[in-house]
Q: What sequence folds into this?
């Protein structure tokens, strides 16, 4: 009887070992298969601020559209468009997201910069923000200490707000700062006003109180975020760029056809966990995610270049629309040769 029991135990131990080895082999084969699958995918890196203006990017990631195209999308989370373009130009990333003003400033000295798509558009993207006790309207800005971020849309909007007030930079005390310094500097009284973009405008209004905050927009400024690359590297990665844009085009269709905004809000809450639901809903209503490249974009580039005293640029040459034409031609809407 004992021999039978010992034999049975030995058989059970042997069977368990065989099963363990079998499972390990299956897992190893799956791991090898996964590694092989990943090795066959193309890697694309984009420098982008973790902001809601990149809604279509987050939808494409959450819905697996890049995976469907055989792409692994990696992000480098820098805060300003200026920093994103510099990062891309240095070769650390393949693409960059920026608004039009930083692009114009940098494209004036880098002839290889090209726009391959828009990403969002809004008429209220940046503004001069102040405590109402210090600045009630445009005409209270004279002599005030105002901070901004050089080389970004905040620089352009500050100049436009000053122009609307009949002022120049010489009429104020101007301070160059970064985002963190801007917000804290206004909250703790270091600055009388700051020039910021969303979501900082939303956050400052919440901190100070909407009724205690003055927000001065430029009627001239329309914010248009852009996806930018280097001309030569774009041409070398033509098929990869088209796959990337095809995934974004699917995200745009999903966004436009989504019957329930809660689906999109859910994606954004997951992709931007630092943002409150209130903030996401506010910007959902403010922003228009879009890949469209049209004459409005051309006019924005022209106007901002002229206002920055940048001349001699051929604006249509700054846009490489051929990639978008291959995947979503309806997004290319130029009607003349501006």
A:
């Amino acid at each position: 009887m004992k021999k039978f029991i010992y034999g049975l135990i030995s058989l059970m131990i042997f069977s368990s070992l065989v099963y363990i080895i079998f499972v390990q082999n299956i897992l190893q084969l799956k791991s090898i298969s996964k590694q092989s699958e990943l090795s066959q995918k193309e890697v694309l890196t984009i420098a982008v601020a973790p902001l809601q203006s990149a809604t279509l990017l987050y939808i494409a990631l959450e819905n697996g559209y890049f995976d469907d195209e055989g792409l692994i999308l990696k992000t480098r989370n820098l805060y300003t468009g200026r920093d994103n373009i510099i990062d891309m130009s240095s070769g650390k990333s393949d693409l960059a997201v920026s608004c039009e003003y930083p692009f114009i400033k940098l494209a004036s000295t880098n002839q290889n910069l090209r726009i391959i798509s828009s990403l969002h558009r809004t008429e209220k993207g940046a503004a001069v923000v102040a405590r109402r006790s210090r600045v009630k309207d445009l005409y209270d800005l004279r002599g005030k200490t105002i901070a901004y971020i050089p080389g970004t849309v905040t620089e352009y909007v500050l100049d436009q707000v000053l122009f609307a007030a009949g002022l120049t930079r010489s009429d104020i005390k101007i301070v160059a700062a970064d985002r963190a310094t801007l917000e804290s500097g206004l909250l703790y009284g270091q600055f009388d006003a700051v020039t910021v973009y969303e979501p900082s405008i939303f956050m400052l209004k919440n901190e100070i109180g909407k009724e205690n905050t003055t927000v001065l927009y430029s009627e001239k400024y329309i914010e248009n975020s852009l996806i930018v690359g280097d001309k030569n590297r774009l041409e070398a990665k033509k098929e990869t760029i088209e796959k990337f844009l095809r995934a974004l085009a699917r995200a745009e269709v999903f966004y436009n056809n989504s019957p329930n905004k809660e689906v999109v809000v859910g994606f954004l809450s997951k992709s931007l966990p630092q943002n409150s639901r209130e903030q996401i809903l506010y910007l959902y209503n403010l922003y228009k995610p879009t890949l469209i490249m049209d004459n409005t974009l051309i006019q924005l580039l022209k106007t901002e270049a002229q206002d920055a005293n940048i001349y001699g640029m051929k604006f249509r040459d700054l846009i490489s629309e051929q990639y978008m034409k291959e995947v979503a031609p309806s997004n290319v809407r130029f009607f003349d040769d501006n």
User: Anything to note?
Assistant: Residues 29-38 have pLDDT under 50 and may be disordered.
